[in-house]
Amino acid sequence: MTTNFSRRSVLKLGGGLLAASALLPQHAFAQAKAINYWHTFTSQSEQAGLDAVLALFKAAHPDIAVTPENIPNPEFMAKVTAAVVSGSRPSVTMVASERFKDLLAMGALIDMTDRVAKWERRKDFDDKRFESISADGKVYGVPSFAFVDWMYYRKDWFDEAGIAVPTTLAEMRDAAVKLTNPSKGRYGYGLRGGPGGQNIIINIMEAFGSPVLHADGKIGLDREKAIQAIDFYAGLLTKDHAVPPSAANDGYRQIVEGFQTGQTAMIYHHTGSYQDIASKLKPGVEFGTMAIPAGPATRVARLAYAYNTITKQEDADTAWQWIKFWGEPDAAVAFLEKTGYFPASTVAAQDKRIVGNPMYKAAADTLGFGIPQPSFPGAAGWAESSVLPNFQRVLIGQATPEQAVDEMITALAEATN
Predict the structure, then answer these.
(1) Which CATH class name applies to 32-146+303-366?
(2) CATH architecture under which domain 148-302+373-415 falls
(3) Largest CA distance in the chain
């Protein structure tokens, strides 16, 4: 004779409870499905956005419990690697596009091709949205939202000084120099030389004509153009003195607070910080948004999609319910309203709350020319362990741009061989 209960479950439920169950509807004891969700949200606005999506999901799927866990960006790859090795993977993991190839190489992601192809909302997403999470004809995730690069500027300062909004990096530098007044504690640009600044440095090198990932698939830097880029960008501190002296250690929080408190006139970030900025400064009056200025060779602004991926096969069916829910327009707009992160869905992006807001025009324009972050095995590690620290050495006078770029080139060869 077989039974549906193990000895452990019987002990857990208790004899009295089992007896009482005969008097109650069968669905009262249906097991709630549970999954855990690893993400890299850190700010209050991001947490508020996640909470909003969780509340909507709970209303739509009361039988599924989602337990979120924040993994700080600097610890993300090490944490996921350890989970794969130890067999303690989460059900769902949020994946930035530049980390995809590394995670795929270690076998951390589950093939989602068939689920995505049959999804009723697949038509709401442009095919390009899936390029950064696909390999060899297989799809490993669904875009949940987009990081659209742009810049914030102090509109009141620009208006007072009669300075036009910059359209090139050269114009940006000129504006930064003009708006710098150390005696008032004002600097023209808030340079992120600390944690998280590596991607901006790579973007600047590409804007000067030195992409790291080339159209033919080759990986490498153009030494002379990369040196010009590092000389220009670090020069905002070392030559122009147009950025705060703390730039080498300034991360997200420092550059945002510097802008909010009137220390800096411009910062380079993405739409995800909009609500943080707008919580302290008046949109369209005290601050404005602008598209990333063009460099000497090209204009580089990233459309970096964040993807939700299945990372544990046993939870795949339940995990899929959570992942595809992010594609619902109501969920996407609710997340945008709390964070500023743009929907990945073209349907959600046409919501009147987005197209009717002039502050989002720069982001909407960027959708036409923005490009993905370069992604290849070793990319994230190289950016964090070589690009950033070598740039920091230039900022603090311990290396020349030539020395920094040579170190980056050597580390890149080691990371990709």
Answers:
(1) alpha beta
(2) 3-Layer(aba) Sandwich (3.40)
(3) 87
